[in-house]
Structure formats: structure tokens, C-alpha cells
Amino acid sequence: MKQIILLILTLVLLATSCQNEKQVSITPTLEVYADSLFQVSIDSNQIAGGAILVFKKGEMLLNKSYGYANLELSVPMPSDGIFFIASVTKQFTAAAILKLVEDKKLSLDDNFTKYLEFDTKGRIITIAQLLDHTSGLAQADSKEEFMQMTFDEFPQKLMVQLVEPKDFLHEPGEALIYNNTAFVFLGLIIEKVTGKPYEDYLQETFFDPLNMSNTSYTSNTKVTKNKVSGYGYTPKGMQQNDYLNYNIPYSAGALSSTTEDLLKWMRALHTGKVLSDPMYQSMINPNKLNDGTTVSYAKGLLNFSNYGHQEIGHDGGGFGFLTVTQYFPDDDLYIICLINTEGPKGGDFFADKMTWKLLDKKEYKKVELDFDTNGIEGIYTGQTRNTIQTLEIKSIENGITRQTIGKEKIDTLKTYIGNNTWMDGNDKITIKNNEYRIDKIWNYYILKKEK
Prior knowledge:
Elements: H1 2-43, E1 49-56, E2 59-70, E3 75-76, E4 83-84, H2 90-102, H3 127-131, H4 143-150, H5 155-163, H6 180-194, H7 198-207, E5 216-217, E6 231-232, E7 239-240, H8 250-253, E8 255-257, H9 259-270, H10 277-284, E9 302-306, E10 309-318, E11 321-328, E12 333-339, E13 341-342, H11 347-358, E14 378-383, E15 388-396, E16 399-404, E17 411-413, E18 415-418, E19 421-424, E20 427-432, E21 435-439, E22 444-449
Parallel strand pairs: 6-13
Antiparallel strand pairs: 1-2, 1-12, 2-3, 4-8, 5-8, 6-7, 9-10, 10-11, 11-12, 14-15, 14-22, 15-16, 16-17, 18-19, 19-20, 20-21, 21-22
Helix pairs in contact: 1-11, 2-6, 2-10, 4-5, 5-6
């Protein structure tokens, strides 16, 4: 009997030893790699600090902070530093709207003017089109408008007045142009429908039930333990971030959080603990443009193939911070990176390094050109996020070049994948029928060929 017990204990210890060995073989290697990436960036003054979390198949592979939360006082980054997450806020706003749809308080097909007074000049713009950036609404983003909103008590409401008289960027549903205005409107709609401040509704609906105690609407006056300061990189050294009235980004980007709170959120969202399955599927699966074109932005979240791996997530940036949240469902992998510096190395830089340390990057397969590219040469013009863009396409041997008019840089598109389509990284460019179409994941632009 004793021999049997000893045998069982030996097998248990052996199994435990093997399991620990497996963990040690992955985590330290990843940690050493992350340490080197962050240390080089901190030593070269490209970032003040940051935090990164990698969670795969129920196991925490990496959860670490680096550098400084405050440079002036030489305060090291705490393990639970609270960062401004900017546009990562949008997924919370989208989930809040879908929760109200679930509760039958509104419909995705509703014209948004049912809840918010606004002259659309006869256009019907649905709640869904606000959520996926296809509304065509103009933006209030000039320096003069920003200063006007900075010193206003309710800049989110002032934004409605500033945008209303402007021309639309495009007709609703014809293109996808990333639109902060639309998400500010969604916050106002949440307040109208619930009768509660936007931040209170999120606190009651998401933050408290999920025990996200370090996530909140960012404040310039509230004393918040472990709140991280933001900076901007310049060749001459770091600079403090500019003052921001957080009611300007509002429901488009005013939240602050930690890596661990964001992991709680993402795991809850993607495992059915936040929304019903129909609403979750609506949130992560993009709609199509009016002409049936498939896009990559769903509702507050991207959903696209990142070099062969499905990725669902969102970035954020501004006023001293660059953030990224990534979920790879097929690999059950979560990567969250928060950086307190606007500069050459944001959250996406470090997150991408971790991604391709863990996953196999599958380059797009190049095929031989199957048409005469002389037929697509010409000048193409159309609306992009910040401006009217004009570029020139030229035919060269076995390919084409593109050049934005007014700029010296000339790109050669090298990765042809068939059907008049090239890949540039994960961007997809299709040129046919006198149109230059580019799916930039965050935006889908259509430039027309000039006659």
C-alpha cells in the first residue's frame, strides 16, 4: 500500500515539474524579450514608460510595467498604473449602445435624430452607421474649434452645433471614414435614453459588475491613485502633454484604465458575459457598404486578418498616450499595451513584437500580374479622413507606383494578390472601374479617376 502511495506521489510531482518546466520555458523568454524592447526605448528617451500584458489560453505569460509614471518626480511605473486609453473607449460606448438595443430601449436601424436634434439635410443616418464610422458626418477638429470647446462647460454638446452646418464627408454608407463626432453623438444618445450621465451608465452596467475598480471617466480634478502622467516625444527631449478637457473626446475617448482591468473587460466581452450572443456578433462583425463592399470596422472594434490571424481589437492615442488592445480568437490570445508617451513607439509597436514572437506571421502570397497596368494609370481624387487626397498611379514593369500629389515619396506596390488588388502590409488596394479603393482597416476610402 505504501509503495502504491509513493508511486502516485511521484507521478503527481513529476507532472507538476513538467508543467512548471513548460511555463518557465515560455514566460521568461518572452519577459527577457519584452525587457530588452522596453529598456532600449526608455534609455533612448523614446518613451517615458509603459505596461504590457500577454494572456494566452488561460495563462498569464507576461504582466509587467516599465519606466516612469512621472518624469518630473522620477516616479517608477506602478504595477497597476492607470493610463488614459483614448479611443479604446469606443468599444465601451458600442457595448453600451448594444446593451440598450438588447433592452429594447432603441434599435440599430433607428435614425439617430430620433434621440438627438440635428439637421441631416434630409439624410437618414442610423445608429449602426454611427457605430461603424459610415455616417459621413463632418468633424469638429480645427484648432479654433478645439480651443472653443476646451473652455466650454459642455463641449460634447457644443460639438453638435459646430458640426451641424458643415458639409458631409460622404453620403451615409458610401465609405468608412473614422469619425470621433459619431461616437460623441452616441454618448449623448446614451444619456438621452437612460436619463443618466454617460460615465454613470458605464460604471453601473460594466465597471462595477466586472470589478473594474481602476477604470473610470478621466478627470482633471479628481485625485486618482496610480494615475500615470502623459508625455510627448521630441528629438530635443520629452514634453508634458497638453491640457485636455475630457468632455471633448467624451464617449469617443475619455476613459482611463489599467492592463488588468482591460483584460477583465476583454475576457468578459469575448466569452459572453457582457452581451447576448446576437448583440456580441453584431459588435464584432462588420456591416457592408451600400455597394456590398466588406469592411474591417465593426462597432467600436476592428475585425480583420492580421497576416493570417483573425484579430479583434482597437487602438487609442492622444495627449501623451498610445494604447492597443488585441484579441486573437483562434489562438485564444490577448495582448494589451499602454504607453504614456506619444512618439515613434506606441502600444502597437510593442504589441506587434509580442504577437509575432508567439504567432506565425503569414505573409500575403504574391501572384503574377494578370492584366495590363497601363489601363489604370492616372490621377485619382477623393475624401480621406483629414483631407481631399489626390494621388497618381503609374505603370512600371511588373507593377505600379503611387504618389500623393504634393509629396516627394513614391511607393512601389509589390505584393499583387490578383483581381486588380495589391497588399501593402495589411492594407488592401484595389484599382479598377476608374476607382482606387483602399481598405486601411480603420478606414475605407474610394478615390475616383479624373477624366
